[in-house]
């Protein structure tokens, strides 16, 4: 190509950049530091409650307090956190909000989970969120959660994370006997939900008269260690998740592999951005939501009136003595928001579901997704061009490496985020987050460059003074 045409292409054409081509040595070290903190967070926080606790611990360590009026946070039902840094302008002039979700697909224990079959004890489960059931067999699993006992006391349980701990597993059928019962079925039917039973015991109590001696032995163990009886499972939230810590992936350690990166990568990076804010122009809010993976229903989900409650409280804390509904609605309409959630990175070996020109490339930075939804943009929050234009200016001025992308080929599938539920309140909102591979699997993959640019994008959004 001639020199002139090359210049013309640079001037008129568009091409996204690889993050690694845009970072100097110092910034590459900053990527590694952030990645290490992120892996530590993921390894500790595997449920929405654990995320809440870990987020609060990090907030407290950086000077946030529930009672403060400049750097404060609130917790709702141990599953939602809202953290706020007061801005230089009064909140009536608008708010900057980043909302992520801290629930992830998993297996919940049923209300009556414990059974014995052939002198082995199992926990029955009910899956939560969009899983591919075959992902969950034949791998080490851990049990995380809480049990509320008859007297109201709450017991926290984490088994399977310490190297000395036992783990659990769901057994799969050997290939020798699986030819018909699995091999001739559709992939999504090969492992029925009722077979997702977790192996938890195999030592019978010494009494040949008793029928279910292994089950009783498991109950005895749970009673000795946690003071539990079988009825306590009814008032429990015990979640089966992949065991073990987050890891680097690749000879060059370019990637992070871990459970729960949808959407804890956005929770972590938006928290990190907020922690590093000093007197931003607008009051900045990081909101960590629950129940996104099952449609944002329930009183800890984005469809509830939680956001209204948060805005009323926030205005009071920031000095508005009795905020009217009129004022709250006005502040909603002056809010600029990010729906912080992950998107699908192009998988080179499944290009048939992707649209190469419009889907996200791993390593090309944080992704701005104007609309999600499915079919003819059904169920989409389609951000307005003016708002996209504003965000584009903010990201470019801050030198963030970002890409604009959608979610697979038209009519191939699709997905949703909390964006449309928050947009209901009147705020401007757009999806911004990193691409993942193996999303919704027990070992999701993120690129460290995208992790870093997601953090940079959220920080630039909070700090933006542009109108
Ligand atoms: Mn998500
Ligand atoms: Mn998801």
Radius of gyration: 24 Å
Major beta sheet summary? 8 strands, mixed
Overall helicity: 25-40%
Terminus-to-terminus distance: 41 Å
Assign the CATH class of the largest domain.
Alpha Beta
Spell out which ligands are present.
Answer: manganese (II) ion
Strand percent estimate: 15-25%
How is the largest sheet built, in terms of strand order? 1-2-12-3-13-19-15-17
Tally of strands: 21
User: What's the number of structural domains?
Assistant: 2
Task: Describe this structure as you would to a colleague.
The chain is α+β, with helices and mostly antiparallel strands. It has 2 domains: 13-103 and 259-463, Aminopeptidase (3-Layer(aba) Sandwich); 106-242, Aminopeptidase i, Domain 2. 28% of the residues lie in helices and 24% in strands. The chain is built from 11 helices and 21 strands. Helix 7 crosses helix 8 (325-333). The longest helix has 20 residues, at 25-44. The two termini are 41 Å apart. 43% of the residues are buried. The mean pLDDT is 97. The structure holds manganese (II) ion (MN) (2 copies).
Write a brief caption for the model.
With about 475 residues, the protein is of the alpha+beta class. Helices cover about 30% and strands about 25% of the residues. The relative contact order is 0.17.
């Amino acid at each position: 190509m001639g020199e002139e045409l090359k210049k013309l292409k640079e001037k008129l054409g568009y091409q996204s950049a690889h993050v690694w081509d845009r970072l100097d040595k110092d910034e590459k070290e900053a990527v590694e530091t952030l990645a290490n903190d992120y892996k530590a967070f993921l390894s500790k926080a595997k449920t929405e409650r654990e995320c809440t606790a870990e987020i609060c611990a990090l907030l407290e360590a950086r000077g946030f307090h529930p009672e403060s009026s400049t750097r404060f946070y609130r917790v709702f039902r141990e599953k939602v956190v809202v953290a706020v840094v007061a801005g230089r302008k009064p909140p009536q002039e608008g708010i900057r909000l980043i909302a992520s979700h801290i629930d992830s697909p998993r297996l919940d224990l049923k209300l009556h989970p414990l059974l014995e079959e052939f002198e082995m004890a199992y926990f029955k489960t009910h899956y939560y969120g969009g899983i591919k059931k075959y992902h969950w067999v034949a791998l080490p699993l851990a049990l995380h959660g809480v049990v509320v006992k008859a007297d109201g006391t709450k017991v926290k349980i984490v088994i399977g994370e310490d190297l000395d701990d036992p783990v659990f597993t769901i057994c799969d059928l050997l290939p020798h006997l699986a030819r018909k019962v699995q091999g001739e079925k559709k992939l999504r039917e090969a492992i029925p939900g009722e077979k997702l039973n977790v192996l938890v015991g195999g030592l019978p109590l010494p009494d040949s008269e008793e029928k279910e001696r292994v089950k009783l032995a498991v109950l005895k163990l749970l009673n000795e260690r946690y003071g539990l009886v079988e009825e306590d499972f009814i008032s429990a939230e015990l979640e089966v998740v992949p065991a073990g810590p987050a890891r680097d992936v690749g000879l060059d350690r370019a990637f992070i592999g871990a459970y729960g990166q949808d959407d804890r990568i956005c929770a972590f990076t938006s928290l990190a951005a907020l922690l590093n804010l000093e007197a931003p122009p607008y009051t900045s809010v990081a909101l960590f939501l629950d129940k996104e993976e099952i449609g944002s229903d329930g009183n800890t989900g984005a469809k509830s009136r939680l956001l209204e409650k948060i805005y009323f409280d926030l205005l009071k804390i920031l000095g508005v003595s009795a905020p009217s509904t009129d004022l709250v609605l006005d502040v909603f309409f002056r809010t600029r928001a990010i729906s912080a959630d992950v998107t699908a990175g192009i998988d080179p070996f499944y290009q048939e579901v992707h649209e190469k020109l419009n889907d996200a490339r791993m390593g090309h930075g944080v992704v701005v997704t104007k609309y999600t939804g499915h079919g003819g943009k059904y169920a989409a929050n389609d951000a307005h061009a003016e708002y996209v234009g504003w965000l584009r200016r903010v990201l470019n001025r801050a030198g963030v490496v970002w890409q604009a992308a959608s979610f697979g080929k038209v009519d191939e599938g699709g997905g949703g985020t909390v964006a449309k539920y928050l947009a209901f309140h009147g705020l401007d909102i757009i999806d911004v987050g990193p691409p993942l591979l193996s999303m919704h699997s027990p070992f999701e993959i993120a690129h460290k460059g995208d992790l870093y640019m997601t953090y940079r994008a959220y920080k630039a959004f909070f700090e933006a003074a542009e109108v």
